[in-house]
Amino acid sequence: DDHIWATMRSGKVLRIDPTSGSYTEVLNISVSGNGSSEPGMLGMCMHPDWENNPTVFIAYNSGNVFSGSEVLSAWEWDGTSLVNEELLIDDIENGGIHNGSRLIITPDNKIMMSTGDTGDGGASSQNISALNGKMLRVNLDGTVPDDNPDPSSYVWSYGHRNSQGLCVGPNDIIYSSEHGQSNSDEFNIIEPNRNYGWPNVEGACNTTAEQAYCNDN
């Protein structure tokens, strides 16, 4: 709509006029920890058919910092505010750190959502049954795409630590940036059913142990 939309970790969404710099607050909700640390309002993206379906998708942390949940929801834009929240996913574990989360709409009109391992040392990242430490692929209505690696699961790829950058590049390639523990940040091409290694691999496969793990996985 020729405006800049921005999330604030404290739970606000701003709609900014890029010419004047003036802005309006179009959403203000309660988030975990009031956005004072890593949890809070995180990713946001728009419905690809905005003119006919002005819907905004938002990922945020709800409830207690350590026992709440990370939520993916859809909001209607009424021309002034975001209203009528519809929860799409509300059972991703919260954490005081490492929640991700970024959202994009992929060229095939799916939501791609990054989630962090919540600081659990990577146990959830390698657990295919958990939604943490993953890239999740979601239909616009919140259901699981039937062409996901497991048609009963949102999980698209796993072995992630804390991805906080996500974009679609040329030739529809999906790229993600991911924080390493203290170094070895990663810039990954995201592909289905791939294991990105955390916690067994950090950065490149460049140690004896990492090379053995990469060969096996």
Structural features, described:
This protein is mainly beta and 217 residues long. Helix content is 4%, strand content 38%. It has one helix and 14 strands; from the N terminus they run ββββββββββββββα. It has one helix spanning 208-216; strands at residues 4-8, 12-16, 23-28, 41-46, 55-62, 69-77, 82-93, 103-105, 111-114, 134-138, 155-158, 163-168, 174-178, 186-189. The strands form four sheets. Strands 4-5-6-7 form a four-stranded antiparallel sheet, with no helix packed on it. A four-stranded antiparallel sheet has the order 8-9-10-11, with no helix packed on it. Strands 1-2-3 form a three-stranded antiparallel sheet, with no helix packed on it. The longest helix has 9 residues, at 208-216. The mean pLDDT is 96.
Rough outline: globular
Count of runs of 4 or more consecutive helical residues: 1
Question: Structural class given helices, strands, pairing?
Answer: mainly beta
The neighbouring-strand order within the major sheet is: 4-5-6-7
Computed Rg: 17 Å
Portion in strands: 35-45%
Distance between termini?
Answer: 44 Å
Fraction of residues in H or I helices: under 10%
Q: Mean pLDDT, rounded to whole units? A: 96
Task: Briefly summarize what is shown.
The protein is built from one helix and 14 strands; from the N terminus they run ββββββββββββββα. It is mainly beta and 217 residues long.
